[in-house]
Amino acid sequence: MNGGMPAAATIPGASSWWRRWREPAVQMRSVDVLAAAVAASLPWSTSATGILMALWFIALVPTLRWHELKATLLRPASLLPLAFAALSIVGILWADANWAARLHGTNPLAKLIAIPFLIYHFQRSSRGHWVFIAFLAACGALLALSFAVAVVPFTPVSKLNTGVPVKNYIDQSQEFALCLFVLALPLLRLLQARRWALAAACAALMLAFFANMMFVVSARTALVYMPVMLGLFAFLHLSRRAMALVLVSAAAVAVAVWFSSPYLRQRVDNIAAEYHDYQTNAVSSTAQRLEYWRKSLKFIAASPLIGNGTGATRELFERDAAGQTGLLAEVIANPHNQTLNVAVQWGLIGVVLLYAMWISHLVLFRRGGTDLAAWTGLLVVVQNMVSSLLNSHLFDFHEGWMYVLGVGVAGGMVLRRAGRATAHAAGARQGGDDLVFGELADNRR
After folding, report:
1. Percent of the chain with pLDDT over 90
2. What is the pLDDT of residue 154?
3. Burial of 99 from C-beta contacts in 10 A (0-12 / 13-18 / 19+)
4. Are residues 408 and 118 in contact, defined by beta-carbon separation less than 8 angstroms?
5. Taking Cα atoms as reference points, which of 285, 274, 62, 16 lies closest to residue 168?
6. How many CB atoms are closer than 10 A to CB 103?
């Protein structure tokens, strides 16, 4: 009936659309747009993030150049996340748990597989900033809604915590704090350039994020990693005199906030009461963490080298809780400490891989200089490492994907800039001909 013509030709415009989609530039742009959509969805929806990330991988496949991908995979920043994910699969073999728990235990590390592919793509693409702008815009919208539901609580939206429109206060604090400190570098650059209007707008947004965390809702973990992030900014980007001024000012602000925020004082004061709960076998947040850590150390001692296997944590806690009451009867699959979570399942081998991966990413961004991409990536890694002292944030969905996207996109941007700098240097030595042809090829993508 169609006379042997391709099916796409029977639909008006389909053939031209298909030809246009197969153009490398269009395919690359599609991957960039989907990555930005993933970042925009992350503060709002777990399901949307998963669906969009799957579509991102599908869109990426036609753009892959296998010899370039292979070179990316061999970098420590890419290879170590893959090795860590592979360990979770191999750890199934000796797991002290049923098969459902073993298979489920591989899920938290599966997201790490995306890191090398994100690095690979954004090493080629010039649109990595789209992803960070999309995330900042989504967090800005969430910030406005958080203030709104704090002033006029709407139960179906604000759920259990005033000022938390979606998800939970831990996730919200993680993203607001990241946005706050990432914006510190643009603010500094704007002030140095005397662009006062933009600097004022940037400072106002930072102040809004800070005020929300101090007066509306915040995770106590944020009180641990925020001083570290501030100190990192001061050390890397300020002179000694400016660093001293900023740190003294920050201390003064902290004192002022402490006396003006009943919410913050209550959050901190609760720690002492919750520690008393631990001593009396009562259940509370701090008491639970302490008990999880105590039991985790016992499980690690039973198999220190290779651990108890993938997905074994809950089974171990269930056995230990048998016949107990109160706090001692608590059962958990997540001991709320990243190192302990890894060590219980994969022992010393897993801990070495975890810290090797973190260190490789720190080195990548520290060598990347002081541009915004390197600063963003460095903050993502440092925030994840510090917050993982009190949580298993690398394994959690929201914080884990913040890490994967931040490291993958920023890592690709840093390597792209380093590659272009090398190409410019080589081009200058060779008269510039090779550089011109390289840039033309890059623009055709």
Report:
1. 55
2. 61
3. exposed
4. yes
5. 285
6. 15
